[in-house]
Fold this sequence. Notes:
The protein is mostly beta strands. The protein is 12% helix and 32% strand.
Amino acid sequence: MQGIVTAVSSNGEYSFTKPNRESITLLAGLGVEGDVHAGVTVKHRSRVAQDPTQPNLRQVHLIHEELFAEVGEAGFTVEPGQLGENITTKGLDLLGLPVGTLLRVGGEAVVELTGLRNPCLQIDRFQNGLLKQVVGRDEAGNVLRKAGVMSVVRTGGVVRPGDLIEVELPAEPHRPLDRV
């Protein structure tokens, strides 16, 4: 199972969107070098308000580029970095991978999937109505979160657009991703 990196993004300031970069550097146990969400403990404002000592399971945010086409069919225009992700991918079913999946990105970097991004109202501030496109319900009434996955950095390295992504599944039984 392989995919490709189509864009990389980071921002040293709190902002919903993140500008695209030529490359980003992942730091083991921390996240994206220079990104506001990098750190051993949680950096997302709502999580810090709850408990600033909790571990940062949201060091690197990945979104599948295919989501942009999906929301485009509903009239929304979204480009890489605009939903706050660090790595935009293509060709991988990120949402279908289990907790603990390792993604080998480029020649060196490895991230471990921790869970699903829990989309918030900031998405509607970015484009009104977009939240309903990235959070929905399946036929059984279960909540579906489609705004990407969160991960922690296991091995650091430089990541660039065009880098291959190799998937290493964890030992079974697999646990589906849940919000983190």
